[in-house]
Amino acid sequence: MPFELNRVVPWGRSYDEYVRMFDLRDEQLGQRILGCADGPAAFNVELTHRGGQIMSCDPLYGYSPTEIQARIDECFELVLRQTRNNADGFVWSETIPSVEALGEIRRQAMDAFLKDLPIGRSAGRYVAAELPDLPFRDGAFDLALCSHFLFPYDTLGLDFHRQSVASLLRVAQEVRIFPLLTLDRRLSPYLNQVVQMAESIGCTADVVPTNYEFQRGANRMLVLRNVVAR
């Protein structure tokens, strides 16, 4: 199905959340990074300001900042209301102590993204592309990150997950995917099959704990590595 802005709920996460979700150390932050299905996250803009090398891809980037802002405004209060209604499904902490604080963190991240989008798109840091058909050469990146897209949406189907992970492994030496739960907090039914597929093409696959848990129980990522360097 072609991407349509009015069918998605843009929801951007902060640089600090990316660092914690994917357990990113200085070594990884200095690599060539692809952020896949990043949406209106602030990771690209902040890492760029810190001197990092990053490209983000998402079909969202085919739209103007004005169009994306309007869609964010349409969805924002609905997402917060749903979060409030399901508050026991989240881990509230000093980092995100309340629904109101969550809204502020998300707004700041998305505002930073919207301000950066025209500059970053001109610089080639934001590419309008989507899984599983990534328009990048083999081995173009050291590390690919996929946040809150693969596994949460089990309606995408097993074949889509397999093809998407294979595509990520084609363009990056290492792939990290977070979280491993569906939206209703079940372990994705596709995890084992994706791991088997990755191993069948000569990659290693490990489920690794992370220092991040906002959706209750979502505190592990899948780390896939090409055994032979490209």
TrEMBL record:
Keywords: Methyltransferase, Transferase. One of its GO terms (molecular function) is methyltransferase activity. One of its GO terms (biological process) is methylation. It comes from the Bacteria. This is SAM-dependent methyltransferase.
